[in-house]
Amino acid sequence: MKVIVIDEVAAEGLALLAQDPRVEMDIRPGLKKEELLAIIGDYEAIITRSGTNVDRDLLDAAKKLKIVARAGVGIDNVDVDYASARGVIVVNAPFGNTNSAAEHTMALLLAFYRNITKANASLKSGEWKRAQFTGYELKGRTAGVIGLGKVGGRVATRLKAFECEVLACDPYVAVKRAHDLGVRLVSHEEIYRNCDIITIHTPLNGETLDMIGEKEIAMMKEGVVLINAARGGIFNEQALLNALQAGKVAGAAVDVWSEEPPETELLKELIAQQRLVVTPHLGANTFEAQINVAVDVSREILNYLDDQPLENAVNIPRFDLTLMEQMRPFLNLVKVMCDLAFQLVDDNPAKLTFGYAGTIAHYDCSPLTVCGLAAILNLVVDQEVNMVNALLIAENMGIVVEEHKSTHADAFSNLITLTVEGQGKRRLLSGTLFEGVPRIVRLRDYAMDFSPEGHMLLLNYADRPGMIGRIGTILGTRDINIAAMNLGRREKKGEAMVILSLDSAVPPDVVEEVRNATDATFIRPLNMKSDGRSRGLAG
Length: 539
What we know:
A 7-stranded parallel sheet has the order 8-7-6-9-10-11-12, with helices on both faces. A 6-stranded mixed sheet has the order 14-13-15-16-17-18. It is 34% helix and 23% strand. It is elongated, with a radius of gyration of 31 Å. Strand 15 and strand 16 form a beta hairpin. By secondary structure, the chain is of the alpha/beta class. The protein is built from 18 helices and 22 strands. Mean pLDDT is 89; it is low at 530-539.
C-alpha cells in the first residue's frame, strides 16, 4: 500500500508503518493544493491532521484511495459524506489525545482564575505587582460539563478533584456513567442557570453549531466563566464577544476557533479581549498525544491491510470488538446467502429484508446487513461496493433495505433469513451455522439442509416416482458426479425441490435436458466459491 502523510505527524507513531514491508510511505507535509492534486492519484491511503482539507477535489483526484486516516479526534477537514460515496473509509484517533485535551481545559481554566497570563506578562516586563492579580479558587464552585464523553468525563473527574460540584449534560450518556463519575445529569437549561463555570466537550455538527448563543448566555448567572477547548463554532463568537463586553460573562478561555487561523475582524476583536485567555488550538498538542494518535491511525491502516475490523472508522457500521470473533462466521454466512440469493433472481432487487433470530438478535446486526448488501450490489453494479458506500448506492438505486430481529428462532439457536423481492417475485432463504460452517435450512417454504459450495443444480418439479433416477442418469451419461443431494417437499406427490451438489459445472444443454426430462417448473445451476463468492452469474 502506498501511503502519503500530508501534515506534520509524529514520526514515532508512523514507525509501525515504516517497519512494515507492505507499506511504501511518503512524508510530504506542506504541499500546495496544486502539487498535492498532481500526485495524489498514486496513493491508496492518506494520513492527515488538520492542516489539509480532504475535499471533493482531492478525493476525485485520488483514484486509488481506499482509506483516509485523520490523526486526531475531529474530522472537520474531511468531506466524510463524499468519501463515503466514493467508497473511501475514513478513520480517526478519538482516544489518543483525550488526556491532553482534558488537561489543557484545566490549564485554561486555572490560567483564567489565577490570572497566570497577565501576571506572567507583567513580571517579564519588569513589574512587581500582586494585588491586581488576585485570583479565585475553584473549590466550592458549581461547574457544568456539556458532553460527558472521553474528554468531558476526564474534565469532570479533575473538577471533582478541585472540590467543585459538577453538573453534566449529555443526552447520549447513561445515568450509570454519570453516577460512576460522581456527577449529576441535568438539562442544558439547568447547566446554564446554575453553573459558575461551563465547559464544552462535544463534537461540532448540525446539532452543536452555535449551540451557545445570545439566548443561552442570557439564561446564565452573572459572572459566569466559559471554556471551549472542543471545537470552534460551538459558542457563537459574536454572542461571546457581546457578553464579555457587557460583563455578563466574567471571562472565558478559548482554544478553538470557527476559522483557523483566525483572520476575520470579529475573531481579532474577540481574541484581543482582556478577560479572555486564548491559545492557538493546543488541546492535542502534547508530545504524548501526537505519538498516540499517530500510532492509532497507523494501526488502523495495518488493520485494513490485514482485513481486520477497524476500531475507529467513522463511516462504516462497527461490531463491538469483544464480539468480533463470535460474529465473524456470521459475516461469511451472510455473504454466502447473498451470493446464493442473487443467483436465484433474474432482475435487480427492489427490496432486501434481512431477518435475525435467536441469540444473535440481542446484538447490533447492522454490520451484517451492510456486509450482505455490499455482497449483492457488487454483483449488480460496475463500481466497487463496500461497507462504506453500500447503503448510499442502494438508496440511489431505489432499493429498499430493511432489518428485522427476533430473539425466538424455533429449532435453531441462531437463524438469518434473507428475502429478495423484485418484479413481482419473491425469493426467501434462511441459513445458520453448524460448527461454524454455513448451512441453508430453508428455500422459499421448503425445509432444506445443505452447505452451499462448488457447483450445484437447483430444480423444482412435480414429485413422482423415478424423477431422481432420470436426473442421475442424465448427469451420469455426461460424466457429472453427484456429491450430495437434498430433497424438500411439502406433501407426498406434491411439488418437490431438490438441490444437487456436483463435482463439476452443468453445461446449458444438460440443464435443458434435465428440465425436459423432469418437466421442471424452475431450474438453475449455481456456482459458488469456497469463500462464498460467485464464479459468475448463472443464466
